[in-house]
Amino acid sequence: MQAGLLIIRLVVGLLFAAHGTQKLFGWFGGYGIKGTAGWMESIGIKPGVPMVVLAGLGELIGGLLFAAGYWLPIAAVLLIVPMLVAIVKVHGQNGLWATSNGFEYNLVLIAVVLGVTLIG
Predict the structure, then answer these.
(1) InterPro entries under this entry (predicted)?
(2) Nearest to 79, CA basis, from 24, 21, 16, 15
(3) Helix H segments across 26-71?
(4) Mind listing the pLDDT tens digit for each residue in 30-75?
């Protein structure tokens, strides 16, 4: 069971961390702080720059903590909050299915993070 949880933590945690670096540094095809801030402001998340920094740091730090298996409750909050914001501000109005840009994937990530955190 431990090896299975390790695989889940590493894949999900490191992908979250990489997603945070897209926001913060423009790595892996991301738009960096200014580019992401402009998009966030266009969907009503203001002020854009501080919100990008908070989201990016949450995903980066939360992802690394999750991958390492440290402070899982804190990591879970840092990862689940941006997913809830994504559901409310971006995907929720499109319904459930990812094929319609819905919140299916966000919900799966929330379930994985919460489930692994509850297992410990």
Answers:
(1) DoxX (IPR032808), DoxX-like_oxidoreductase (IPR051907)
(2) 16
(3) 32-42, 48-68
(4) 999 999 999 999 999 999 999 999 999 999 999 999 999 999 999 9
